[in-house]
Write a structure and sequence with these properties.
The chain has one domain. The chain is built from 1 helix and 4 strands. The protein has one helix at residues 62-71; strands at 13-17, 36-40, 44-51, 54-61. Strands 1-2 form a two-stranded antiparallel ribbon. The chain has a two-stranded antiparallel sheet with strand order 3-4. Strand 3 (44-51) and strand 4 (54-61) form a beta hairpin.
Length: 75
Amino acid sequence: MSYVCEICGKKTVYGISQMHRRGVAGKRWRKRAQETKRLFKPNLQKATVAVGNEMVSMRICAKCLKRTKMVGTQS
């Protein structure tokens, strides 16, 4: 099972982690940390959502979970 939201399709994306962005007291670091690749994963939750007339268990992101709770289809 892939790490993807079943409603909006949000998935894992690659990015770059950066440390020591500003430096000490606004000045630059002499030896800055290297930029390394990292993964940004969506905040997936298991939830039971009403689809049509039946309740379905899905893995959805926290943003979609919040949206479904506001609409009132969450149990």
